[in-house]
Design goal:
alpha+beta, seven-stranded antiparallel sheet, five-stranded mixed sheet, globular, binds 2-oxoglutaric acid, binds fe (ii) ion, oxidoreductase, metal-binding
């Protein structure tokens, strides 16, 4: 007599990416992707709230979101280039902007988490390996109390017409989703020789340096830049970054050692210049890079 077999729900979500898409993102470090409807709906609401925010006076924007932690939190201006707001925690809970930011954050983190799982699935690694790295990252944090550990961020940009740019770089974190309005973002296509810059015309996912390092260079980090657009441009950038607490077991991805997560992250980051800092800060960081004999194309975002 046949035994009763009980099938529970699968422990992991089904794949998002096709085999071909996994191959593409691994070799290029970037992948244009259609967003699921519910994520797209949240994005539209956030984009409309973003435009309203940037309509405020510069003083209002500065007062509402004072910049802190260098460029890493609050409203920041790079004269002649861009303005941007980095959200890493709730500050004005009941505003339309933060409400939409919170909804978008929740949906985009689970979307990007699933893509990380797809990479692990393709490499034959445990799909649960990311859980620890993504601790406390799935919701917009309620307060600033854990910002030393929770590094994920949502960045809303307004680029100046023509002069609004970002120099070429790879992002430091795990995965970034960029959605820009109009031409501006370009990614480096390495399928041709020599590699060429091509326009990213829709939503695009980029692999960050931390994922490249965890996966032991089996995937590339996506090199990208922003070029001037005569009309200026808004963009929404969500950077999923690691939770910097405790240790990470590199054996999860076929490596050998257990590392202190923060130290590992800082080492990857190195002394690369910050492409979103003001010109004088960037120049100081570049000088440090020169002194260390590093490539000047080694910016991070
Ligand atoms: O604005 C964009 O589309 C991309 C910006 C970027 O690459 C970054 O801030 O790291
Ligand atoms: Fe970037």
């Amino acid at each position: 007599m046949a035994e009763d077999v009980c099938f529970g729900p699968p422990p992991w979500p089904p794949p998002i990416l096709t085999t071909e898409q996994v191959r593409h993102i691994a070799s290029q470090g970037w992948l244009p992707l259609e967003l699921p409807d519910d994520l797209l709906a949240s994005l539209r609401e956030l984009q409309s709230a973003t435009r309203d925010f940037f309509l405020r006076s510069d003083d209002e924007k500065r007062n509402l979101y004072p910049s802190s932690r260098g460029t890493e939190c609050g409203f920041y201006e790079v004269p002649g280039e861009k303005q941007y707001l980095t959200l890493r925690h709730n500050l004005h809970h009941d505003t339309t902007l933060e409400c939409h930011a919170g909804n978008f954050w929740r949906k985009v983190t689970s979307f990007l988490h699933r893509i990380l799982c797809d990479l692990n699935r393709a490499g034959g690694y445990d799909l649960g390996a990311w859980d620890h790295v993504l601790e406390s990252s799935h919701m917009l944090p309620k307060s600033a109390s854990d910002l030393d550990m929770v590094t994920t961020l949502l960045r809303l940009f307004k680029y100046e017409p023509t002069t609004g740019i970002a120099s070429e770089h790879v992002d430091i974190g795990l995965l970034t989703l960029c959605i820009g309005g109009g031409r501006g973002l370009q990614v480096l296509d390495r399928s041709v020789e020599p590699p060429q810059w091509i326009d990213a015309t829709g939503p695009i996912v980029l692999i960050g340096d931390m994922t490249r390092a965890l996966l032991r260079n089996q995937v590339r980090a996506g090199r990208h830049r922003v070029v001037g657009n005569p009309d200026g441009r808004y963009s929404t950038v969500f950077a999923l970054r690691p939770h910097l607490k405790g240790t990470t077991d590199l054996a999860m991805w076929g490596g050998k050692s257990v590392v202190d997560t923060r130290e590992f992250y800082i080492k990857i980051k190195g002394s690369k210049h910050n492409i979103n800092a003001t010109h004088d800060v960037r120049e100081k960081q570049r000088q440090k890079q020169r002194k260390n004999g590093e490539s000047l194309a080694g910016g991070i975002g």
